[in-house]
Design a protein that fits this description.
The protein has 417 residues and is mostly helical. It folds into 3 domains: 43 residues; 66 residues, no CATH class; 240 residues, Type II secretion system (T2SS), domain F (Receptor-associated Protein). Helices cover 76% and strands 6% of the residues. It is built from 18 helices and 3 strands. A 3-stranded antiparallel sheet has the order 2-1-3. Strand 1 and strand 2 form a beta hairpin. Helix 3 crosses helix 4. The longest helix is centred in the middle third of the chain and has 58 residues. The relative contact order is 0.09.
Length: 417
């Protein structure tokens, strides 16, 4: 006989998880049905017990595949909201997917939807069809759809998914809006610096060469950099591309990604924004999965996969092991020394009251407000700081260029000698 993990709700709405022995899943469902209560999910207890570790090459190919097949977040949000509305209105999933596929304007996403429609017609479930497109539907999306299919609450799950994606898109839009001006200034600054080193400094270099005088160290360094840039432009650009690719590959390794994510959390101001964003995603994902009836161990595994920060992922992984050994959720998270006290207190209270999903949802809203506040402050501070930075960099280069002219008489005298 096989072991099946299950999640049910009794007549009072209390949630219960456990393991039941049966020859098949249908037999396990029948046994649970005779015991009364509402069946939320049933799955083979051995599913997901082992996951092969991807090689670096596999990670690179997967990253390239996801970038090649990814669609815009707003496209996915609109699709999820429409699918939820159509399904709630009584259309079958097959009919809803078919209609949405025909009307979709995005060519890449249209191709995905047509393949999903074809898979559904072949007998695959919606979650199984989505699972074939990891560049579009992440593990959280697929697992929530699967939970909705098993529990018979797919329309509710799709609503939750749409709202979650809309919040994510709203936060991303705010961040992008706040960063548009700084990015423009930085790009403009890079162009100005390149123009100075490529065109301006060489002209002064020729003039100084006629003097035959010793130039200040700062000026000599600037001229040397200018000579490298002007004489090896293609090599310089190639080196920048290679450096970018090296960082990209390092970020795909476990250790490299952990170091980069650790640095992000330590950057003043920005680190706080990153942490709040991760905690918001953590809390909201945890809440949605709990509300959908996904078993706690699977919930933690999915949360680990979607938080987007290696440091937090490691903490969730360690907590998952402790919870499996019998520790409480709040106790396990507290032992990692990674999660903020506000989140730990809400989890502890949720465990005691049985309203963990509701309190986690409120925690996500709390961190969303912090994100909005930090973005507003950064928007007001970054603009003057960037102007000062631009003035400082360009001004320093100009001073270095004109430094010998400040002592022009002495330079000419030495040249005459």
């Amino acid at each position: 006989m096989a072991n099946f993990s299950y999640t049910v709700k009794d007549a009072k709405g209390a949630r219960k998880e456990g393991i039941i022995k049966a020859n098949t899943m249908d037999e396990a469902i029948d046994k649970l049905a005779t015991e009364g209560g509402t069946i939320i999910s049933v799955r083979n207890a051995n599913d997901g017990s082992f996951k092969g570790k991807l090689s670096l090459f596999d990670k690179i190919m997967l990253a390239i595949y996801k970038m090649r097949t990814a669609v815009k977040l707003k496209t996915l949000v609109f699709f999820t909201r429409q699918l939820s509305t159509m399904f709630s209105a009584g259309l079958t999933i097959e009919k809803a997917i078919s209609n949405l596929g025909k009307e979709e304007k995005d060519k890449k996403f249209k191709k995905v939807l047509m393949k999903v429609d074809d898979d559904i017609r072949k007998g695959y479930s919606l979650s199984e069809s989505f699972e074939q497109h990891p560049g579009v539907f992440n593990p959280l999306y697929v697992s929530l759809v699967k939970a909705g299919e098993v529990s018979g609450t797919l329309h509710t799950v799709l609503d939750e998914l749409a709202e979650n994606l809309e919040r994510t898109e709203d936060t991303r839009r705010k961040v992008n809006s706040a960063m548009t001006y700084p990015i423009f200034i930085l790009v403009f600054l890079i162009f100005v610096v390149w123009f100075l080193f490529y065109y301006i400094i060489p002209k002064f270099s020729d003039i100084y060469a006629n003097f035959g005088a010793d130039l200040p160290m700062a000026t000599r360094v600037a001229i040397a950099i200018s000579n490298v840039i002007k004489g090896n432009l293609l090599i310089t650009v190639g080196m920048l591309i290679v450096i970018g690719l090296i960082f990209f590959v390092i970020n795909l390794t476990d250790r490299g990604r952990w170091v980069f994510d650790k640095i992000k959390l330590k950057i003043p101001v920005v680190g706080g924004l990153v942490e709040s964003s991760v905690m918001s995603k953590f809390s909201r994902t945890f809440s949605i999965l709990m509300k959908a009836g996904v078993p706690i161990m699977e919930t933690l595994e999915l949360v680990e996969n979607v938080v987007g920060n290696a440091v937090i992922e490691g903490a969730v992984r360690r907590s998952r092991v402790m919870i499996k050994e019998g520790y409480g959720i709040a106790q396990a998270f507290r032992s990692t020394d990674v999660f903020p006290s506000t989140l730990l207190q809400m989890i502890s209270t949720g465990e005691e009251t049985g309203d963990l999903d509701k309190l986690l949802s409120k925690t996500a809203e709390f961190y969303d407000k912090i994100i909005d506040s930090v973005i507003d402050k950064l928007t007001s501070l970054i603009e003057p700081m960037l102007i000062i930075l631009m003035a400082g960099v360009v001004g320093s280069i100009i001073i270095v260029i004109y430094l010998p002219i400040f002592n022009l008489g002495e330079a000419m005298a030495e040249g005459i000698k």
